[in-house]
Design goal:
879 residues; mainly beta; Immunoglobulin-like; Tick-borne Encephalitis virus Glycoprotein, domain 1; 6 domains; six-stranded antiparallel beta sheet
């Protein structure tokens, strides 16, 4: 017996793991790989066993990881079964033996990241009929086909709404991305039926939270992992929404159990246990020349036309799923920020999009203009883990390009992406081609606001970020840009330029402000050094950029000082809200002395000798109906050091809205005035006999959720906990818990909420308005009750002259004003009920004639039921 390699058809064992057939790219249709084993050539008796296994048959060689050949299958023809050239070409019964057994294997996810799949770090692999399977519950008789398992080099980008074909009827869909967080809703389907939907959050540093796993009862074993993937990034951009997945694992959950006596092709299962399976042929197999003889599954023997020997070899056809490889799974579109940045060897990097929050960017790597890599990155200083901000493009085991996202900029006038620590190696010899380079992509080049320094330098504020924390600064000399950076007031705030001759410019971004009326940026610690001799030209100065000079709301202090609330941060439409900010300006005799951008809790301070003004920002509130700034601890001293204002307070408010009123005891009432446009703060007020004794901005999170009022004696009168603020499309609400009121007379509890008690208030979603009623064109309603039903607390219903037949119920704080008692008559439908039935406090009714309440049970023309603070005047009531 002789053995030889068949040219062209047979490849070496390890290389055969890749196969001699067609390879697949992710997203392509299912293809076929073909494998040919070592050739047997018998010119005489077969004196020994003929064996094929992973070492001489690519069909039994599997690349589980690191290109290592792994396999447990063996196909054996017993010795003395065949004899060439034509004496015995038949494999008798039980002379062809196929064996396999399961082996232990780590999930790629666990091997690379230390993360588990459904709580498991390993699974059992069973190679069955030339296919890689999973031995369910380590049982050799329950193989489930392994459709795919990706290693660390494979990545797929999925656009929202895209249905990704995983093969065997499975699809994965990125249904949607949360508007204000890094969450994605994924849907796994099979044959169009949803198996599971999963919300994955990638915002935290615990990477296990990014693992999406679907388990099912497979072959009687519950909680068996069927599908798993690692969501490496979630991206909501200005032009595109997508996610990236890695470490995809998928099995076919349809399992046919293997039992002793089962037939597979010409083979019969002889023995089966947890340790392995043995099959033998139960019919003779004839190896006729130039034929293909099926054995089991897609495994067959191919015989050649050699007439001087029995010459044959095993042949396997293996179908490949559409996601066998992760390469090529990119979202291709025509969105670009700036032109691509050309590197060496025809590589380039392009910026595609940024997030509305200005914290993420989408980039692609191109080779000869074709996308070969894609990354969804988070700014380095905001990234939860290092892998969120850096991207590595690897080809054939060599890291070709590596880059880190330093800045993603969503500006008013331009979008930008700043890459740094960019390295490139040659794909030819591995040499360094690009070493620690940086590049700024920008969609436009706005003029910005210039500031002329010394020696021909100009430091321009080009643009600010849409969410008021980023600023784009550009330094130029004699019209040539020498440095530009995107900086952040909290994370990367230092601007540094060195000329190389001892000169330079440095500064720090203190505050970035996008206001309702103007944008502003405050720089501090500004220094400039001469390019000629390094001498100091500017030392530790500050500068205030402003796009406009709004009038604001002025408050006159003592000695001609004026403290003006210039503007508030514009939070409308903001993707990421952040802290509310206010722009304050102190002036005297029309000359600006100091201006600053502040947040809640910040100190505003000005000193000129003994003269001084200082205060603390208590709260900044961008409401639905009003803007509010509250200052506390206000102190002013004269030029001689005399106190002019001590520990004062001031509230700037653009309007005075009022919501639903809660009437308390002893003349007190509680009114929620407004909620902020982000739905996490409320402006609350407490009144005594109609006069405000306390108002405050309260948040519904953290430790500042309590609204409390102590009277002049220090006694607690009222307190409540702001449990929730709701900003809906149809209504705006607040909810209080733990409310209590104590008597100012004897300290007894007048209101004391039990655990679980809640009080919900309707907050106005517009300013009070006047609704009109009449029978002519141009009015809002034709009936009084319809106007009342549509009105909000605080509104006025004005009724024109005419006669109205209706029963009027007033159940909210309103003003009902008739054109005059001699012009407006209201008569009820039923004579035994009141004409006006008032069941709410603070109702005003005037200018009506009420008539017709004459029947049994009639109580009054205008009936007030258990209410207070109502004003009924200038009416005629005829009974």
């Amino acid at each position: 017996m002789t053995w030889r390699l068949l040219p062209v058809l047979v490849v070496a064992a390890v290389l055969a793991c890749v196969g001699t057939g067609m390879g697949m790219d992710a997203g392509a249709g299912a293809g076929v790989l073909e494998f040919d084993g070592e050739v047997v050539q018998l010119t005489g008796a077969q004196t020994g066993d003929s064996i094929w296994n992973k070492s001489n048959f690519g069909g039994f060689c599997y690349n589980l990881s690191d290109d290592a050949c792994v396999g447990t299958e063996a196909l054996t023809i017993a010795a003395y079964t065949l004899e060439g050239p034509d004496i015995d070409r038949t494999i008798d019964e039980n002379c062809l033996i196929y064996t396999t057994y399961p082996i232990w294997h780590e999930y790629e996810l666990y091997r690379n990241l230390g993360l588990t799949v459904g709580g498991n770090s390993t699974y059992w692999v069973e190679f069955w009929m030339g296919e890689e399977c999973i031995a369910i519950n380590q049982s050799a008789n329950s193989p489930a086909k392994l459709l795919v398992e990706w290693d660390s080099t494979n990545t797929r980008t999925i656009a929202t709404g895209e249905e990704w074909d995983l093969g065997m009827g499975y699809t994965l869909n990125a249904v949607g991305i949360d508007h204000r967080s890094d969450k994605v809703l994924l849907s796994l389907k099979k044959n169009g039926m949803e198996l599971d939907d999963m919300i994955i959050d990638v915002s935290g540093s615990d990477l296990q939270d990014r693992v999406c796993t679907y388990t099912a009862n497979v072959s009687g074993v519950p909680d068996t992992p069927v599908f798993s993937c690692y969501v490496s990034a979630v991206f909501r951009g200005t032009r595109s929404n997508m996610v990236q997945v890695k470490y995809v694992f998928l099995i076919d959950d349809t399992v046919t159990g293997i039992h002793a006596g089962d037939d597979y092709g010409v083979m019969e299962v002889k023995t089966i246990s947890s340790s392995g399976i043995t099959l033998k042929n139960d019919v003779p197999i004839d190896l006729t020349s130039n034929t293909t003889t099926p054995i089991i599954g897609n495994l067959s023997f191919k015989t050649t036309g050699n007439t001087s020997a029995v010459e044959f070899y095993p042949h396997l056809i293996r179908e490949e799923p559409p996601i066998h490889s992760g390469g090529g799974g990119f979202v291709l579109d025509n969105y670009w920020i700036d032109s691509s940045w050309n590197l060496s060897e025809n590589y380039s990097i392009a910026a595609k999009d940024v997030s509305p929050g200005g914290d993420k960017a989408r980039i692609v790597v191109l080779k000869n203009g074709v996308v070969v890599g894609e990354a969804l990155l988070t700014e380095e200083l905001r990234a939860s883990v290092d892998s969120d901000c850096s991207y590595s493009y690897v080809k054939n085991g060599t890291e070709i390009i590596n880059a880190t996202l330093k800045a993603a900029f969503r500006g008013y006038a331009s979008n930008g992406v700043g890459l740094a620590e960019v390295y490139q190696r040659s794909e030819v010899d591995g040499s360094i081609l690009t070493n620690n380079a940086s590049h700024l992509f920008k969609s436009a080049d706005p003029a910005g606001i210039p500031w002329h320094l010394a020696d021909g330098y100009i430091l321009a504020m080009k643009d600010i970020g849409f969410n008021d924390d980023d600023v784009w600064l550009e330094l130029s000399k004699n019209g040539v840009v020498v440095e530009e950076e995107i900086l952040n007031e909290d994370y990367a705030s230092m601007f540094v330029y060195t000329s190389g001759t001892g000169g330079g410019v440095t500064c720090m971004v203190d505050r970035v402000f996008g206001g309702c009326e103007a944008n502003a940026v405050k720089l501090v610690n500004i220094s400039q050094y001469s390019d000629v001799n390094g001498t100091t030209l500017i030392a530790e100065e500050s500068h205030f950029y402003r796009s406009a000079d709004p009038a604001g709301m002025a408050w006159e202090l003592m000695d001609e000082y004026v403290l003006t609330m210039k503007d508030l941060k514009d939070s409308h439409g903001r993707w990421f809200h952040g802290e509310d900010k206010v722009w304050l300006e102190l002036s005297k005799d029309g000359i600006m002395l100091k201006e600053d951008i502040l947040e809640s809790g910040d100190l505003f301070a000005y000193e000129n000798g003994l003269e001084s003004v200082d205060c603390t920002v208590e709260a900044v509130f961008k409401g639905c109906l009003a803007d509010v700034v509250k200052l506390k601890n206000i102190n002013q001293y004269s030029s001689t050091g005399v106190p002019l204002i001590e520990n004062g307070s001031k509230t700037y408010a653009t309007a005075d809205p009022a919501g639903e009123m809660w009437e308390l005891y002893e003349g007190y009432s509680f009114v929620p005035k407004d909620i902020d446009i982000n739905g996490d703060k409320a402006w609350l007020s407490l009144l005594k006999d109609g006069v405000i004794v306390k108002d405050a901005i309260v948040v519904d999170y953290g430790d500042d959720c309590w609204f409390e009022y102590y009277n002049a004696t220090g006694a607690l009168v009222f307190r409540a906990y702001l449990d929730a603020v709701f900003y809906g499309t149809e209504s705006r609400l607040i909810q209080l818990t733990y409310a209590s009121q104590y008597s100012e007379i004897n300290g007894s509890a007048l209101i004391l909420f039990d655990k679980g008690d809640k009080k919900t208030f309707l907050v106005s979603y517009r300013h009070p308005t006047t609704l009109t009623v009449g029978d002519h064109s141009g009015v809002d309603f034709t009936s009084i009750q319809a106007a009342i039903d549509a009105a909000l607390p605080g509104d006025t219903v004005y009724v024109y002259a005419g006669t109205y037949s209706e029963d009027v119920g007033v159940n909210k704080r309103l003003t009902l004003e008739g054109e005059g008692a001699d012009a407006v008559t209201v008569t009820n439908h039923a004579s035994d009920s009141p004409i006006f039935n008032v069941t709410a406090d603070y109702v005003n009714i005037s200018g009506f004639t009420a008539t017709g309440a004459t029947g049994w049970g009639a109580r009054a023309g205008i009936y007030l039921c258990d209410v207070d603070h109502c004003n009924i005047s200038n009416n005629n009531v005829l009974i």
